[in-house]
Amino acid sequence: MVNQQDPRVLRTRQLIREAFRELLQSKGFDSITINDIAQKATINRATFYAHYLDKYALLEEITEQAFREMIPEEVMDALEFTDEICDQLILLTHRYLIDFHQKCRMDSKSMATIVDEKIKEMLKQTIVSILLKRDNFYREDRYHAEIISAMTGSAIYGAALHWLTVGKMDQTDSLLNIVRPYVMNGLELYRN
């Protein structure tokens, strides 16, 4: 087993991630091979496999890491799901999608599916952690909180993706004015 805290391991993983990101800018995801990544990272294939199962696992890690770094502390420390927290989640999801689409060629359904699912899961985890911190209703039933969080995260993600797809990237005030009431009213229905 590889010691994940070893500086050499951390450096190798960083090289792999950087190589993969560079390849995503120039090649389609489906055409990137492990050999391509290994060559670009100046490692051999066996070293790649010592760190990642495949390019799909690498994509998941990169997606999660980039999204997690964008989540403000205010959201992570929130004790309740307020309008402001909702706005921050909508805007960061929107920003992430814009950045991702500008940096990567999104010409692969498998890549899009992985990114979609990972971001929705991270939104769900973030929202459920907020709901479980304070709200007695949700604390009593974690399963219920997870369902509500999954629906809320999917609504935020779907709206942000649609907004990007229809080319309204710079009209975030309108996005917030449409999505926030929908999300907040939905959460209020389940609290009552």
UniProtKB/TrEMBL annotation:
Keywords: DNA-binding. GO terms for molecular function: DNA binding. It comes from Paenibacillus catalpae. Residues 10-70 form the HTH tetR-type domain. SUPFAM superfamilies: Homeodomain-like. PANTHER family: ACREF/ENVCD OPERON REPRESSOR-RELATED (PTHR43479), TETR-FAMILY TRANSCRIPTIONAL REGULATOR (PTHR43479:SF7). It holds the Pfam family TetR_N. Residues 33-52 bind DNA. The keyword Transmembrane does not apply. This is DNA-binding transcriptional regulator, AcrR family. The keyword Iron does not apply. It comes from the Bacteria.
